[in-house]
Design brief:
Elements: H1 2-8, H2 19-25, E1 29-33, E2 36-41, H3 43-48, H4 53-58, E3 63-69, E4 74-78, E5 81-84, E6 90-96, E7 101-103, E8 112-122, E9 127-133, E10 136-142, E11 155-160, E12 166-168
Antiparallel strand pairs: 1-2, 3-4, 3-6, 4-5, 6-12, 7-11, 8-9, 8-11, 9-10
């Protein structure tokens, strides 16, 4: 569809409820909820920097967590999970895409957390895994080395890329 639209070089309005299709075909995406425009942007902007919790949760899987910025450059997700952030102090909603959580290596500079696999599904291109980090259950998408099968109970060292965490005001929780 995208190739045809580009080849004939015409402006096209394409309406779909398939989020992946919208991201794959569109140059610009309009996300609406209950007849109201929530956000307009490129597919990358919509996915990586959602402006509302609705957009974050509607466009792809994500973890949305109440959090607190402590004013000293830390984002506190729970007692055991703190990430560097540049946010001023206050309550926020942290949006973390599953692919922003990866297996840690010894070379990683970001904070490393111990996690336990709760459940895992093989999707062909990756595993979709629910992990427990501190008191949080987080969705993680990724590849695992052949020696590491993400079965329930498996212990992992993971990192959350702080540059991929999107912070929304708590008023955006609705």
């Amino acid at each position: 569809m995208r190739a045809l639209i580009k080849r004939v070089n015409i402006t096209t309005l394409f309406v779909t409820h398939d989020q992946e299709e919208a991201l794959a075909i569109a140059d610009r995406v309009v996300v609406m909820s209950k007849g109201t425009v929530e956000q307009i942007g490129t597919p990358l902007q919509i996915y990586e920097t959602p402006e509302t919790r609705f957009v974050a949760e509607f466009i792809g899987a994500c973890n949305t967590l109440p959090a607190r910025a402590d004013g000293d450059g830390n984002l506190i997700l729970d007692a055991d999970v703190r990430l560097p952030c540049g946010a001023p102090s206050g309550d926020v909603v942290a949006v973390i895409r599953p692919e922003a959580i990866t297996l840690a290596t010894s070379a990683d500079a970001a904070p490393v957390f111990q996690a336990t696999v709760v459940s895992s599904s093989y999707l062909g291109h990756a595993y979709r895994t629910v992990i427990k980090v501190g008191s949080l259950n987080l969705l993680m998408d990724g590849h695992f080395p052949s020696k590491v099968v993400p079965n329930p109970g498996t212990r992992l060292s993971v990192m959350i890329d702080p540059t991929r965490v999107r912070l929304l005001p708590p008023s955006m929780q609705v």
